[in-house]
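WP5 quarterly update. Target: NAD(P)/FAD-dependent oxidoreductase. Source organism: Paenibacillus artemisiicola. Length: 306 aa.
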Amino acid sequence: MGEKFEADVAIIGGGPAGLSAALVLGRARKRVVVIDEGRPRNRVTKETHGFLTRDGVAPGEFRRIAREQLRAYPSVAFLEDAAVSAAGTDGDFRIATAGGAAVRAKKLLFAVGMRDLPVGISGLNDVYGKSAFVCPYCDGWELRDRWLALIAKGARALHMAKMLAGWTRNYAILTNGPHELTDEQLQELSRHGVPVFDAPIRHIVSSEGMVEAILLEDGRNVACEGIFFAPKLAAGSELPRSLGCRVTEGGTVVVDAFGKSSVPGVYAAGDAASELYQAISAAALGSLTAAGINNELLHDAWEAVN
Ligand SMILES: Cc1cc2nc3c(=O)[nH]c(=O)nc-3n(C[C@H](O)[C@H](O)[C@H](O)COP(=O)(O)OP(=O)(O)OC[C@H]3O[C@@H](n4cnc5c(N)ncnc54)[C@H](O)[C@@H]3O)c2cc1C
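Structure tokens (predicted):
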């Protein structure tokens, strides 16, 4: 028999969103269980940038500090495990974990982040998080003024090209197959001096994680010092969908301003429930959602007295 937990709130996911929610709920004297399997999307990187007071912190170090600070609140428990099923209704949810633990909670918070799907480019895994990134706000500063390759196609390529121009003027678009750009879009890129290569990518050449060149199937070789690419994403967990929560086509749980999903008692926060994809935004949404959950718990308890 596995361990059994009774909590006011079960938080599934222990990244910036889940940990921030745990802090607010712990300080509000709620019994919390944080279930986390420890596979955040940014585990490929060495540094998290743009989080005020923590600029450049390693993702693991961020979590370590958060867990250490949460130790001050004895009503917060941690379970290093994967939640594999969720059932029940508002006031009485049950979560089962891969390790055999059973958690009963009045409210559920999904802070499960997003998951990268393979993009199928040879050599990309060797450089992802070291010299290939997905978001200029996160890693553009470190690659400022460098020669970069932007791997994306269609309207998304144009959007990312406009954004990248804020960090460097030296970049080419590699569409890895049909460019899916209109004539107007191609002319716009040409006006801004952005070359477009539409041959499929054969391989990314790198040394110790640092990209050196991108070989194309037409024999050309694009030298570069860094890459930004359009990732393919999926929901971090299918559990919100299995409980009946409304989820967008892209895998984002649909929530209100306080993180409430379409299913009573079920909340979502962080990357799982927004497309901001920034650690500080995820933490802020976790905090806001925790306040929403706490308000609902206080209200339920108040109303239960007759
Ligand atoms: C390469 C890369 C670089 C980045 N760099 C930066 C940066 O420099 N600055 C910045 O602000 N942001 C950066 N980000 C974005 C940032 O990582 C995310 O916005 C942030 O981590 C989101 O926090 P979260 O708590 O919502 O989700 P996550 O941090 O992804 O945490 C979700 C957690 O939930 C767990 N989980 C999922 N399903 C289950 C389950 N069923 N049971 C138990 N646990 C589960 C996961 O294992 C994970 O630990 C980067 C992202 C990537 C991919």
